[in-house]
Amino acid sequence: MIRKDPPPPIAYLLPNFFTAASIFTGFYAIALALESSFSEAAWFIFLALIFDGLDGRVARMTNTASHFGVEFDSLADIVAFGVAPALLMYLYIGESYGRIGIVASALFIIFGAVRLARFNVTTSRIEPSVFIGLPI
Questions:
Q1: Is residue 62 within 8 Å of 30, Cβ to Cβ?
Q2: What is the pTM of this model?
Q3: Taking Cα atoms as reference points, which of 46, 59, 68, 48 lies closest to residue 129?
Q4: Using one digit for the tens of pLDDT, what is the confidence trace for 70-124?
Q5: Side-chain half-sphere exposure of 57, counting CA atoms within 13 A
Q6: Is residue 28 a contact partner of residue 44, using CB atoms and an 8 Å limit?
Q7: Fewest C-beta atoms under 10 Å: which of 3, 10, 58, 136?
């Protein structure tokens, strides 16, 4: 029987670093949108997408996938792919539609959060090292 050594404790930080980078780039996109730098904000949301893809891959490569990582990733997703794009959309065009613009932007975040909650409930019954799709 082949014995597999557990990953070193520092290895658990690596995927979480990419998740934190996704949160940071999502937040920075929000800051840019507030300054009316819409194109740059969109690029930072795209950069968050790259970090989001890397965190799961790194966790699986280093055998450090965990339920904490799944939850942390979902929180990052609601910032980077829920709040940031909704605010960008609202500030770019939604403001001119008044309450309808607010509702449309808010619904985007709400439906994204519902999707993430559903994803998290599903992953609590599945091994976290298995990739099961994009949550938001």
A1: no
A2: 0.85
A3: 59
A4: 889 999 999 999 999 999 999 999 999 999 999 999 999 999 999 888 888 876 6
A5: 7
A6: yes
A7: 3
The type of residue at 30 is I
pLDDT for position 95 = 93
For residue 124, the SS3 value is coil
Distance CA 101, CA 10 (A): 45
Length of the chain: 136
pLDDT at 104: 95
Retrieve residue 34's tokens. 């507030």
Query: The dihedral of CA 19, 60, 50, 70: what is its sign?
Result: negative
Instruction: Please provide the average confidence, as pLDDT, over all residues in the chain.
Output: 89
